[in-house]
Amino acid sequence: MFDDWMERYEHMIDLGKSLPLIDPALKSEDKLIKGCQSKVWLHSELKDQHIVFTADSDAIITKGIVAILIRVFSNQTPEAIVQADTKFIDEIGLKEHLSPTRANGLVSMVKQMKLYAIAYQAQLNQ
C-alpha cells in the first residue's frame, strides 16, 4: 500500500490517533502491558462471545502499533484470537523496522491479547 517506511509510520501514527479515547479509569497498573518501553494500557471486554479491545499509549508509534493489533483482533471470538497466525507482522515487515525495544513491545502486546483470549475461552467453556 505504501512505497516507503516513512509513509507506513505516518499511517501507523494516524491509526493511533483514530483510536477511541480510553476511559481514564482503565489506565491502571493492571492494564499496563509488561515488556513495553512505552506505557501501553490494554483493556478487553467480552461482548456477545467476541472480545473487544481498547487501548492507549503515551507514545505515538506505540499507539499506532496497538491500533493495528486492535484492528486485527478486536471483535473476534476468543478461539479465533488464540488460533490466529501472526505471520502478517513479519509479512508486512513491521518487526524489522522497529527498534528492538519496540519489537519486544509488539510481541508483548500480541501475547497479552492472546492471554485475554485464553481466559475468555476458559470462561465460555465452563
From TrEMBL:
Residues 2-114 form the Fe-S metabolism associated domain. It comes from the Bacteria. Pfam families: SufE. InterPro entries: Fe-S_metab-assoc_dom. Belongs to the SufE family. This is SufE family protein. It comes from Rasiella rasia.
